[in-house]
Specification:
Blueprint: E1 17-22, E2 27-35, E3 41-52, E4 55-66, E5 71-76, E6 88-89, H1 92-121
Length: 133
């Protein structure tokens, strides 16, 4: 195998299953169908995988075009080991509810921290809980 610079090295990965981690934190899994010099990707049979604790759910997304600047990580999935996961797959509805609860818990924790800092500092440049000035 010869070395190919940049995204040209991914030509051999066309038609293989990949996991893509995006800048916004989303995880996509699909078959890589196309890539260009800017690392823009086309994924086929794509699912968005949501992880919460030891559970995960897959939301079908179909064909997905990803702008290269949004890709944080791209990795080939070993199809033989794909099912060897300690995580439990749950329904879309259940994982979305778990995600909502997790996000609400994080927001409440951030609000408590903000409140503590605000009450400790008084009005000196801090913001009130809930983002109010």
């Amino acid at each position: 195998m010869n070395y190919m610079p940049g995204t040209a090295s991914l030509i051999e990965d066309i038609d293989k299953k990949h996991l893509v981690l995006l800048r916004d934190g989303r995880t996509l899994i699909g078959f890589l169908r196309s890539i260009d010099q800017f690392a823009n990707l086309v994924l086929h049979q794509t699912v968005e995988r949501i992880h919460v604790g030891k559970k995960y759910g897959d939301i079908p997304r179909g064909i997905f075009v990803v702008r290269g600047e949004n890709v944080v990580l791209l990795g080939e999935i070993d199809l033989e080991k794909e099912s060897d996961t300690p995580l439990q797959q749950v329904s879309i509805e259940e994982i979305l509810e778990e995600q909502r609860v997790e996000q609400q818990t994080k927001l409440e924790a951030e609000d408590r921290k903000r409140y503590i800092h605000y009450s400790r500092d008084g009005c000196r440049g801090s913001r009130k809980p809930g983002g109010a000035p």
